[in-house]
């Protein structure tokens, strides 16, 4: 006999009559059933640089655009929490205790989670650090539990995701940089619903969340457009067209308030011909009205934002330089020579150091930012494919898959200390292509394309 269901008094999701706890919103429905002294995990919010689409522009995939899915509307709220056919396994009822802060000099260990017959493209930690999201080449977004490696959820996307990004600790944006004009955004609290589709334009670049907690800004490369969207409706609120292809976006601070930094470049005959960053207050009307452009080099790559939001640090691959951009009423640009073909830059050591990953040199260059002088050059056991720094800037994890696509190398290097140095190099599956770090810095996760696995790095 089927059990009678009634609406949850908190979220209105259907629940079994007499249930002690709502599986949708986690509210306790019987006071005496509430556990004593619940533990709450606090996650810091880190402002990080995002990936310039030229890094992944050469990737090819047999998976193309699928028919459009039904967009999310506010009227769908009543269905939140109803199990979707794509949802696998029971919901997690209790949160584990937070791990102790990591000691970079302690021994690191690895364990593996298999992802079936698909190739993982990118990985992302759940804000609480209890699971990881995986974008696969079969155009699915998956969630795996860290505790036992079991798959918790799976959903089909309109196209495969070269990258995935977390928005407001709730939504996962799935970015495909070629052969796409929309960005699917999945609500991870409601896997039973289709993703919201943001109509951004040709060749999506990057996407960032705004401080208002509701709107996001996305850039396009071929379309040269920067647009602001509402979540969860997906409505485009405003946009601006720039004179150059924009693949990188940053949320920074200038003149005492949040500013948007759109970093893009021009090409001539297939070669880099100059790069500019456009800075403007996203709250001004019309959108981009306060825009000012600053020349920053020739071919900027993956960059990062300082903890106070007042500086950008990124490499210039063509000139083999690292660039420090101080954002103020008068913007200052400083640079220093680094290893061959720098692809990504990071702040470390309370923003006292800048570190570049130099693909052809197979090195990481450590720069003392106060003097803009090279402090040291760290040899790596392979060509760096990408990296991810902990929110506090104490630890940097670097995948050693190489710059080809798909990458053929394996391994992950751990960089930490004052000044930063390589403290460990650990094995991963073949084709180490992407990495992410948990909010507490205690774990990293590496996607291995050819091995069809993700590797968890922890102490």
Question: What layout of secondary structure does this protein have?
Answer:
Elements: E1 5-7, E2 14-16, E3 109-114, E4 120-125, E5 131-136, E6 140-145, E7 151-156, E8 163-167, E9 171-175, E10 182-187, E11 196-199, E12 204-209, E13 215-220, E14 225-230, E15 236-241, E16 245-254, E17 257-268, E18 271-280, E19 292-297, E20 304-305, E21 311-316, E22 321-326, E23 332-337, E24 342-348, E25 353-358, E26 363-368, E27 373-379, E28 386-389, E29 395-399, E30 412-416, E31 421-426, E32 432-437, E33 444-448, E34 453-458
Antiparallel strand pairs: 1-2, 3-34, 4-5, 5-6, 6-7, 8-9, 9-10, 10-11, 12-13, 13-14, 14-15, 16-17, 17-18, 18-19, 20-21, 21-22, 22-23, 24-25, 25-26, 26-27, 28-29, 29-30, 30-31, 32-33, 33-34
Question: What does it look like?
Answer:
The protein is mainly beta. It has a single domain (53-60, 104-458), classed as YVTN repeat-like/Quinoprotein amine dehydrogenase (Methylamine Dehydrogenase, Chain H, 7 Propeller). Helices cover 0% and strands 44% of the residues. The chain has no helices and 34 strands. It has a four-stranded antiparallel β-sheet with strand order 3-34-33-32, with no helix packed on it. Strands 4-5-6-7 form a four-stranded antiparallel β-sheet, with no helix packed on it.
CATH topology: Methylamine Dehydrogenase, Chain H
The CATH superfamily appears as: YVTN repeat-like/Quinoprotein amine dehydrogenase
Provide the helix percentage. under 10%
Helix tally equals: 0
Q: What's the architecture in CATH terms?
A: 7 Propeller
Any idea what the radius of gyration is? 22 Å
- Total strands: the figure is 34
Strand content: 35-45%
- Which regions contain 5 or more consecutive residues with pLDDT less than 50? 32-93
Q: How would you classify the helix and strand content by structural class?
A: mainly beta
Mean pLDDT: 84
First-last Cα distance = 49 Å
Strands of the biggest beta sheet: in what spatial order? 3-34-33-32
Strand count, sense and barrel status of the largest sheet are:
4 strands, antiparallel
* Shape, principal axes of CA atoms: globular
Question: What's the CATH class label?
Answer: Mainly Beta
**Domain unit count:** 1
């Amino acid at each position: 006999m089927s059990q009678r269901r009634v609406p949850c008094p908190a979220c209105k999701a259907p629940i079994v009559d007499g249930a002690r706890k709502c599986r949708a919103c986690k509210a306790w429905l019987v006071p005496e059933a509430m556990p004593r002294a619940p533990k709450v995990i606090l996650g810091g919010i880190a402002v990080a640089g995002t990936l310039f689409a030229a890094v992944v522009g050469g990737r090819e995939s047999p998976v193309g655009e699928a028919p459009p899915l039904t967009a999310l509307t506010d009227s769908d709220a009543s269905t939140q929490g109803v199990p979707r056919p794509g949802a696998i396994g029971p919901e997690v009822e209790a949160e584990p205790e937070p791990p102790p802060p990591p000691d970079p000099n302690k021994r690191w260990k690895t364990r593996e989670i298999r992802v079936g017959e698909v190739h993982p493209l990118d990985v992302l930690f759940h804000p609480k650090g209890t699971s990881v999201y995986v974008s696969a080449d079969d155009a699915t977004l998956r969630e795996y539990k860290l505790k036992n490696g079991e798959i918790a959820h799976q959903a089909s996307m309109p196209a495969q995701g070269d990258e995935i990004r977390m928005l407001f600790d709730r939504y996962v944006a799935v970015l495909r940089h070629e052969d796409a004009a929309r960005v699917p955004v999945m609500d991870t609290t409601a896997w039973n619903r289709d993703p919201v589709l943001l109509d951004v334009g040709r060749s999506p670049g990057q996407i960032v969340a705004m401080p208002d907690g509701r709107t996001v800004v996305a850039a396009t490369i071929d379309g040269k457009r920067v647009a602001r969207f509402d979540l969860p409706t997906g409505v485009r609120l405003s946009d601006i067209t720039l004179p150059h292809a924009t693949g990188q976006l940053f949320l920074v601070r200038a003149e005492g308030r949040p500013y948007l930094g759109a970093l893009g470049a021009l090409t001539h005959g297939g070669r880099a011909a100059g790069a500019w960053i456009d800075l403007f207050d996203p709250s001004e009307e019309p959108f981009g009205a306060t825009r000012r452009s600053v020349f920053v080099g020739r071919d900027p790559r993956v960059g990062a934002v300082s903890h106070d939001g007042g500086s950008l640090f990124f490499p210039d691959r063509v000139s083999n330089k690292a660039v420090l951009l101080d954002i103020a009423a008068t913007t200052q640009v400083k640079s220093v020579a680094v290893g061959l073909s720098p692809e990504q830059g990071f702040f470390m050591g309370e923003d006292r150091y800048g570190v570049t990953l130099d693909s052809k040199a197979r090195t990481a260059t450590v720069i003392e930012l106060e003097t803009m002088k090279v402090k040291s050059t760290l040899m790596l056991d392979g060509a760096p494919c990408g990296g991810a720094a902990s929110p506090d800037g104490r630890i940097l994890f670097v995948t050693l898959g190489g710059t080809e696509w798909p990458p053929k190398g394996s391994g992950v290097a751990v960089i930490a200390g004052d000044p930063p140095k390589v403290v460990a190099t650990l094995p991963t599956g073949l084709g180490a292509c992407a990495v992410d770090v948990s909010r507490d810095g205690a774990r990293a996760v590496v996607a291995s394309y050819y091995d069809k696995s993700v590797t968890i790095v922890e102490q």
